[in-house]
Amino acid sequence: FPRWRDDHEPAFVFDLARRLTDTFEVSVLAPHAPGARMEERMDGVQVHRFRYAPQRLERLAYEGGIPSKLKQRPWLGFLVPWFLTGQLISAYRLMRRVRPDIVHAHWLLPGGLIGALLQELPGADFRLVVTAHGADVHLTGGWLSGLLKREVLRSADLLTVVSRALRDKLLQGLPDAAIEVAPMGVDLHTRFVPGNVPPSAATLVFAGRLVEKKGVADLLKALPRVRAHRPEAHLLIAGQGTLEADLRTLAERLRISDAVEFLGSVPNERLPAVLHRAGLAVLPFRTADDGDAEGLGLVTVEAMGAGIPVIVGDVAAVHDVVTHGDTGWIVPAANPAALADAIIRLLDDPALAAHLAQSGRRYARQTFDWSVVAARYRTLLLALSD
């Protein structure tokens, strides 16, 4: 959730919330962060932020997400109990103030857990919707985490997931659960649209957090092979994360630093301009060593909407977005050689690349534009509130 206007943090929760304000009165509870306001109104959404530590120590959320931060900096684990306590207390106070008909919790942990606990407190009279996004399903976290997730799933009046892959994984543990597949959306009518200037064909772009499951290291390892065939090939990396220093070191070791441009964090409204510089979007998703994997990959949809042909790593969730050879190109995950061959194939076949771009944009607009996604959630929520 954005910490302030024009933040570079993924904004899909906010984007959904503000598109529901024509039907619902929407309040959001999100973690505080240094520099953020405690309360504000953003595009019709009343935003409340909860404190969980002295401001200088509020480093658990944002900038890559809680799981990746705990993996890189285990000492941040001491903040987790305070985070949960602060969220629960603030959620209870907000519940007593606004008397919600529906609480929509994003991620099984911690959001879904807080929603489930809130149901047990005095004055609770709401229906609970829980949306799983990916890491909350893929990361095991031990027996306690598994137990808490199962309790959340049992407590929810409605469970939604952003891809069929997540639904199938949850059904392995709860075969009788009623789960709706309802992805988040992308603005494919005004923001992520094709550019007016032809891109540089040999410019590649990656956009996303610099964490293991995004596969950026595999892309860097593929680039020397691509450049042996196309010496002018150039890579733009838009994003930041816990692996940035390691990736810069890898680029130096591979002697490709002159062909790789680390752009840092790019706000969502500026991302289309970055995508328009490239002839090919390369998003080599993989399963991380801890089991984390992409829940859907909205950046794939953003690139497709911008009219850029996409290459993606073969993890289960991408099959909701990409049909190989039609709306994009799927390569084996964690395979730099296969990735390089796919890049070379599309660079050498502009007719195929153009077909993927056109077909991909058409499918993205039909399936993932916010007008479609918000209407789906509006219908689900209204049915729940009857």
Description:
It is a single chain. By secondary structure, the protein is an alpha/beta fold. It has 14 helices and 13 strands. Strands 10-9-8-11-12-13 form a 6-stranded parallel sheet, sandwiched between helices. A 4-stranded parallel sheet has the order 4-5-6-7. Helix 3 crosses helix 4 and helix 11 crosses helix 13. The two termini are 28 Å apart.
Overall number of strands: 13
Anisotropy-based shape: globular
Largest sheet: 6 strands, parallel
Could you give the order of the helices and strands?
Answer: HEEEHHEHEHHEHEEHEHEHEHEEHHH
- The termini sit apart by 28 Å
Strands side by side in the biggest sheet: 10-9-8-11-12-13
Percent of residues in beta strands: 15-25%
Mean pLDDT: 94
Key words describing this protein structure:
386 residues, alpha/beta, six-stranded parallel beta sheet, four-stranded parallel beta sheet, 14 helices, 13 strands, 41% helix
Summarize, please.
With 386 residues, this protein is of the alpha/beta class. Helix content is 41%, strand content 17%.
Write the SSE topology.
Blueprint: H1 12-18, E1 27-31, E2 39-42, E3 45-50, H2 66-72, H3 80-98, E4 102-106, H4 108-119, E5 127-132, H5 135-138, H6 142-155, E6 158-161, H7 164-173, E7 179-181, E8 200-207, H8 216-229, E9 234-238, H9 244-253, E10 260-264, H10 271-275, E11 278-283, H11 298-305, E12 310-313, E13 329-331, H12 336-348, H13 350-368, H14 370-385
Parallel strand pairs: 1-3, 4-5, 5-6, 6-7, 8-9, 8-11, 9-10, 11-12, 12-13
Antiparallel strand pairs: 2-3
Helix pairs in contact: 3-4, 4-6, 8-12, 11-13
